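Hello,

I think I submitted the flavin-adenine dinucleotide job twice by accident. Can you confirm which output corresponds to this input? Input:
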Amino acid sequence: MTPTSQSYDLAVVGAGICGLAHALAAVRRGKRVIVLDRDAQANGASIRNFGFITVTGQQAGDCWRRAKRSLEVWIEIAGAAKIPIVQRGLLMIARRLEARAVIEAFLQTDVGAECRLVEPNKLANYGSSLRAGEFACALYSPHEARFESREAIPQLASWLGERFGVTFLRETAVRAASPPKLETSRGPIEAEAIVVCPGDDLTALHADRLARYGLARCKLHMMRVRPDRFDERTPAVMSDLGMIRYLGYAELPASQALRARLKAEQRDHVDAGVHLIAVRSGDGTLVVGDSHHYAATPDPFAPAAVDDLILDEYAHVFAGARPQVVERWTGTYASAPDRLMLVDRPCEGLRIVMITSGTGASTSFAIAEEVIAELYG
Ligand SMILES: Cc1cc2nc3c(=O)[nH]c(=O)nc-3n(C[C@H](O)[C@H](O)[C@H](O)COP(=O)(O)OP(=O)(O)OC[C@H]3O[C@@H](n4cnc5c(N)ncnc54)[C@H](O)[C@@H]3O)c2cc1C
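Support: Only one job matched these inputs. Its output is below.
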């Protein structure tokens, strides 16, 4: 029997983290699942990101709760699926007193409970590569985990196939999806239920439904750098600019003073949506980013000036010479004006799930558990 001649309990469109998370949630309920993707291999946001499963800094409420649950799932499956956890924890550096005030306010919140403030004289414990003497303090969060996405996502797909018998049909464009049938470039496929996880494709499937959400796409610049100093004790690092982007900090009243100061001192960074995330890979390189430019169709160009803004913030946080940039790329994700994710329900047995913010690596497993639970009652 070929994959197209069988029928399935669930067809998932899209083999990014969102689609794979739905496949996992469904096979854990004993469902027979097929995953379809138009690309021959993973190529979307899910392999272009930091692989940074971020809990601290996510918007308090559903997003934080989903990130916490998704982190548990990542850690649960990492061993069985042979996906190495490359790095744990987050050090949120406060370069300015206004940023320290945000950290102090964050620590008063429920979601700050397991985090702690690190005074400058204790920062040496987190590695010698930081300009510790120049900081006002840092926040340490124990939650975060980092996976090498370009390896983790293919590995997760292989494990779903081998361990749970999920069928993968790649190089297959889905042209229509309404249960119990999908029209694909390889012919029709039957499935009782369908979950569409199209990433930032706003038009191929159910464009009329998606048009209601005012969606755009966001382009991000990313780099892999080889620093001259490297200290394995250093967790993932972020800094002041991240505190006006990540809603867990940005929604605190204390962030207003920081925002005003950053607009005065780092106007170009703020305008380009630049902030610093630096995460480590197994080979001694760091993945560093990013920036945010919004459009219906972002242009494909990656001006060096934007990379320079990211590297400028990097140089304020990390000591040593300007690092060698060994790789550059851009990625895009769907963006909504008023929500971090959406679940659309066009009819019984059909769900469209889109992560409309830069949080999909951190939240997809929990979102998928919720969607599959609701779909199957
Ligand atoms: C540069 C960058 C950095 C990021 N950093 C982080 C981070 O540190 N932490 C975090 O939590 N999130 C991060 N994100 C966000 C996160 O990567 C995304 O939210 C997440 O990957 C979205 O997953 P997805 O499966 O919805 O989309 P994708 O990974 O884009 O997958 C969608 C898939 O659907 C397929 N597809 C679409 N339409 C069809 C069709 N009609 N037929 C067949 N196939 C179809 C596509 O081919 C694609 O493979 C980042 C994103 C980017 C771009």
